[in-house]
Design goal:
Number of strands: 6
Number of helices: 3
Bound molecules: iron/sulfur cluster
Strand content: 15-25%
Structural class: alpha+beta
Oligomer: single chain
Order of helices and strands: HEEHHEEEE
Radius of gyration: 15 Å
Number of domains: 1
Largest sheet: 3 strands, antiparallel
Shape: globular
Length: 156
Amino acid sequence: MPARRRQVAKRELAGLRKVYHGRDVEVSFDLDICVHIGECLRGHHGVFQLKRRPWVLPDEADAGTVAEIIERCPSGALQYRRLDGGAPEEHQGTQVTPIRNGPLLVTGEIEVRREDGTIETLPRATLCRCGFSHISQVRPKIDEPISKSADPRNLT
Ligand code: SF4
């Protein structure tokens, strides 16, 4: 098993990344690194729906559409694994792109070491988290923060 897959699998075992199984694509989500920008929710209302359990239904769109939306998730909170033989996410080297009034978007093979010592290689990451995004349905205001346990997606 390649190192990247091994690290992701380790986090799944630790229960840090929730996995949503579909027929052609598997989606995983880590709420800890979500920056609540909402690309997923705007991307496809059938696949990503906050008021539903589970909030991710990978089979509600074709695998290519799901992959395309997830690649717009800036934080790497959402990742996918194609089960239909489709190409995995790939990047040409590491790139850093400043987002206007937002964080730095990094794409590539980004090794993230957590406080607890676990390491995950992400295809995307954001380097700051100001919390000022007003697009989010989850955390609409910085003065009304939501705890991880209160986030509806934490329930599955
Ligand atoms: S960072 Fe944005 S696109 Fe990614 S899971 Fe969170 S809300 Fe969705």
